[in-house]
Amino acid sequence: MTKDAEDFMDENRRWVCTRCTACCRMVSDILPDLDRGDGVCSNLGLNGKCLIYEDRPAVCRVENFPATEKQKASACAAMYNIVFGHH
Ligand code: SF4
Ligand code: SF4
C-alpha cells in the first residue's frame, strides 16, 4: 500500500506529520551516528515516538524546512513508500 502527498496534508492542504515513522527509519545517510545498524534511528521508541523529541536534531524538524506544504507532504509520501510501500 503506497501513499501520496494528499495523505500527508490536512483539509486546508497544510502538511501534517502523521507520525508514520518513515523518516525515522531511514537515517543511515542523514543521521549516521543515530543509526542503530539497520537504518532505524536509535531514538525511535517502540510506540513510534521520538525519545528525544524536544531535543531532536534540526534535520528532524520538518516543519522548519524551507519548502512548500506540498513539497513536505510529497517528501513524506516518498519516504513512506520507500519504507512501507512494499509490504
Ligand atoms: S515521514 Fe513525514 S509524516 Fe512520517 S513521521 Fe516523518 S515527518 Fe511525520
Ligand atoms: S531523533 Fe527522533 S525524530 Fe529524529 S530520526 Fe530519530 S526518532 Fe526520528
Can you tell me about this structure?
The protein has 87 residues and is mostly helical. It has one domain (5-84). The chain has one helix at residues 69-84. 18% of the residues are buried. The model has no long low-confidence stretch (mean pLDDT 95). The protein binds iron/sulfur cluster (2 copies). Residues 8, 17-23, 62, 76, 79-80 line the site of one iron/sulfur cluster.
Tell me the helix content.
10-25%
End-to-end gap: 7 Å
Bulk shape: globular
Beta-strand proportion: under 5%
Average pLDDT confidence is 95
Question: Largest beta sheet, briefly?
Answer: none
Q: Which small-molecule ligands are present, each listed once?
A: iron/sulfur cluster
Counting copies of identical and different chains, the oligomeric state is single chain
Number of extended strands: 0
The DSSP helix count reads 1
Unreliable stretches:
none
Q: What series of H and E elements makes up the topology? A: H
Radius of gyration: 13 Å
Q: How many discrete domains?
A: 1
**What would you call the structural class?**
mainly alpha
What is the element layout, followed by pairings?
Blueprint: H1 69-84
The chain binds iron/sulfur cluster (2 copies).
One iron/sulfur cluster is lined by residues 8, 17-23, 62, 76, 79-80.
Tags for this entry?
87 residues, mainly alpha, globular, binds iron/sulfur cluster
Quick overview:
The chain has one helix at 69-84.
